[in-house]
Structures are given as C-alpha cells and as structure tokens.
Amino acid sequence: MCFEPNPINLALLRLNIKLNGLNNIIAIPKAIADRPSYSEHETALTSAFGKGKRIEVEATTIDHIVSEFGFSSIKIIKVDTEGMDLKVLKGALSTLNKTQYVITEQTTTGIRQILRDNGFQLFTLSPSGYLLGINTRLEGKA
C-alpha cells in the first residue's frame, strides 16, 4: 500500500506499478498525517516539472487506514513525506505496536523519541542516512 496525494505523481506511480506488474500494491490518493484533514500542498516532483500550482489534498492517518483494512500486523512502514515524517508517526501510534520495521527519511529527536517509546531499536542506514527502527517487542514473532 502506498499513498500519493498529488494527481500528477499519482498517475506516474500507478503507471510504474502497472509497467512493473506489481499486482499487490494499492495506490491511495491521500496524504498521511497526524489527523484527517484537507490542506493545500505543492509536492517536489510537480515543482520539478514547472507545474508547481498548489492543490487541495485529503489527509488521513495510518491508524485509520490500518483499522479500515483490518490489518493485524504490518511488516514495514517507510516514511518519506517532504518534512512531515513526525506527523505521519503521530498518526500511527496504535499501528506501531504491530509494526516490525519503520524507516524514516527524517531523523529528528521527536521521531527518535516516538520510535523508542514504542519499543524500537534505532539504526542509521548507510549511505542514505535514513533511520531504521526495529520493533524489539515483536522479535521472534515474524
């Protein structure tokens, strides 16, 4: 499952999924945040192509999506959200208890604290500098 609120990026993502025959991926046209909302955003790829108009996007939380789909466990959550990684994790507090791995682009103190508070051991990935969290509460349950 992946999330992309920008219609241009979403079209490219869906094309990539189709071209690569990835039948087990659902692309959801929403942003992920700490609470459901609507807001205006301009994403990086749109700006790169010179079409940088602001668009209104719908946001939901990981906790809401996991509950809606009825997932009992999550293998991995990868977060790279143009500076909103902390808000994404704040909207996933219930889900973190059943998630084995979390990877975030940002490595702020707040992100590290949320992951540690939820039983994750933290590592820095090289060469990206991304943060990897391994849920120590779920060790041996994979």
Notable features of this structure?
142 residues, alpha/beta, Rossmann fold, 2 domains, three-stranded mixed beta sheet, 9 strands
**Rough outline:** globular
How far apart are the termini?
19 Å
CATH fold title of the largest domain: Rossmann fold
* Oligomerization category of the chains in this entry: single chain
- Domain count: the total is 2
Instruction: Give the overall pLDDT as a whole number.
Output: 89
- Supply Rg: 16 Å
The computed structural class is alpha/beta
Q: CATH superfamily name of the largest domain?
A: Vaccinia Virus protein VP39
How are the strands of the largest sheet arranged?
A: 6-7-9-8
Unreliable segments (pLDDT under 50, ≥5 consecutive)? none
The CATH class designation of the largest domain is: Alpha Beta
Residues in helices, as a percent range: 25-40%
Main pleated sheet: 4 strands, mixed
- Tell me the total number of β-strands: 9
Order of helices and strands: EHEEEHEHEHHEHEE
Question: Can you offer a commentary on this structure?
Answer:
With 142 residues, this protein is α/β, with parallel strands linked by helices. The protein folds into 2 domains: 1-60, no CATH class; 73-142, Vaccinia Virus protein VP39 (Rossmann fold, 3-Layer(aba) Sandwich), CATH 3.40.50. Helices cover 32% and strands 27% of the residues. The chain is built from 6 helices and 9 strands; from the N terminus they run βαβββαβαβααβαββ. It has helices spanning 7-19, 44-48, 62-69, 85-90, 93-96, 109-117, and strands at 2-3, 27-28, 31-32, 37-41, 55-60, 74-79, 99-104, 120-124, 131-135. The protein has a 4-stranded mixed β-sheet. The chain has a 3-stranded mixed β-sheet with strand order 3-5-4. A hairpin with a 6-residue loop joins strand 8 (120-124) and strand 9 (131-135). The radius of gyration is 16 Å and the shape is globular. It starts with a strand and ends in a 7-residue tail after the last strand. The mean pLDDT is 89.
